[in-house]
């Protein structure tokens, strides 16, 4: 059974750094893309970017390029989303999701439960 | 901002058929497959329809998807109270080289 389990809710101050995690199981972590999706309070879904753990190839949405860092540790089948200096506007729910790719295209087929990040002074 | 446009809301009574549209362009829906996601209140999104019209295991057959040109549609037939949720279309965009979501549609069961 494929599972993605995210780290717990975080409350941070502006300017602080943060790394949240997404631990996976039930499939070959190195062989599938895994990505992150942001949902700001009361808003829709925004794709942030993906990483291919096999070779660490990483792609970012233009909206998030330079704002966050996506990484992965193959040895523990875990993906990460990281900020170096949080802003209040980073307050949102963040979801990790496996981005399956084949001849039919891209599909976010399995999702984590979400990590709520609150940034407030 | 989203490059795929959906109506903000749709509604129906139990048993009715509801249709949600998703309008895109040649760089996304026009050249790639469309997926639909269901987000029940307070939960993570769930894949509902993949590759334009394929239902993953466990998704009831009253959910169906279609695509024509640069638009796609999700239909819910035999609407049930548990279908109250937000629904999002999504597709890969070749120009943006990224995955794009629709603006989302809130379905209400009257």
Structure report:
With 121 residues, chain A is mainly beta. Helices cover 0% and strands 56% of the residues of chain A. Chain A has strands spanning 3-6, 10-12, 18-25, 33-39, 45-52, 57-60, 69-73, 78-83, 92-102, 105-111, 115-119. In chain A, strand 4 and strand 5 (45-52) form a beta hairpin. The radius of gyration of chain A is 14 Å and the shape is globular. Chain B is 0% helix and 45% strand. In chain B, strands 1, 3, 4, 7, 8 and 9 form a 6-stranded mixed β-sheet that branches. The interface between A and B is medium-sized, with 26 and 27 residues.
Short description, anyone?
The complex is a heterodimer of chains A (121) and B (110). Chain A has 121 residues and is an all-beta fold.
What is the fold's blueprint, element by element?
The complex is a heterodimer of chains A (121) and B (110).
Chain A: E1 3-6, E2 10-12, E3 18-25, E4 33-39, E5 45-52, E6 57-60, E7 69-73, E8 78-83, E9 92-102, E10 105-111, E11 115-119
Parallel strand pairs in A: 2-11
Antiparallel strand pairs in A: 1-3, 3-8, 4-5, 4-9, 5-6, 7-8, 9-10, 9-11
Chain B: E1 9-12, E2 18-23, E3 34-39, E4 46-49, E5 63-68, E6 71-76, E7 85-93, E8 98-101, E9 105-109
Parallel strand pairs in B: 1-9
Antiparallel strand pairs in B: 2-6, 3-4, 3-7, 5-6, 7-8, 7-9
Low-confidence runs of chain A (pLDDT<50, min 5 residues)? none
- Average pLDDT metric of chain A: 97
Largest interface: A-B, 26 and 27 residues
User: What characteristic shape of chain B results from the CA principal axes?
Assistant: globular
Radius of gyration of chain B: 13 Å
**What structural category do the secondary elements of chain B indicate?**
mainly beta
Residue share in helix of chain A: under 10%
Mean pLDDT of chain B: 96
Radius of gyration of chain A: 14 Å
Largest sheet of chain A: 7 strands, mixed
From the N-terminal CA to the C-terminal CA of chain B, the straight-line distance is 30 Å
Oligomer description: heterodimer
Low-confidence stretches of chain B: none
DSSP E strands of chain B, number: 9
List the secondary-structure elements of chain B in sequence, H or E. EEEEEEEEE
Structural class of chain A: mainly beta
- Count of strand segments of chain A: 11
Measured as a percent range, the helix fraction of chain B is under 10%
* Strand content range of chain A: over 45%
């Amino acid at each position: 059974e494929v599972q993605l389990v995210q780290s717990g809710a975080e409350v941070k101050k502006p300017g602080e750094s943060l790394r949240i995690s997404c631990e996976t199981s039930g499939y070959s972590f190195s062989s599938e893309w895994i990505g992150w999706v942001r949902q700001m309070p009361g808003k829709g879904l925004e794709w942030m970017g993906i990483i291919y753990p096999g070779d660490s190839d990483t792609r970012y949405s233009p909206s998030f390029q330079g704002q966050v860092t996506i990484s992965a540790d193959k040895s523990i089948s875990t993906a990460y989303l990281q900020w170096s200096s949080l802003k209040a506007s980073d307050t949102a729910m963040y979801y990790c999701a496996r981005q399956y790719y084949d001849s039919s295209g891209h599909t976010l087929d399995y999702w984590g439960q979400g990590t709520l990040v609150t940034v407030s002074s | 901002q989203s490059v795929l446009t959906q109506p903000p809301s749709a509604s129906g009574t139990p048993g009715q058929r509801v249709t949600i549209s998703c309008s895109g362009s040649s760089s996304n829906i026009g050249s790639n497959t469309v997926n639909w996601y269901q987000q029940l209140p307070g939960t993570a999104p769930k894949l509902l329809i993949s590759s334009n019209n394929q239902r993953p295991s466990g998704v009831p057959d009253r959910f169906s998807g279609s695509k024509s040109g640069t638009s796609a549609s999700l239909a819910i037939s035999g609407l049930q109270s548990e279908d109250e949720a937000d629904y999002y279309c999504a597709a890969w965009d070749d120009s943006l080289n990224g995955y794009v979501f629709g603006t989302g549609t809130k379905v209400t069961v009257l």
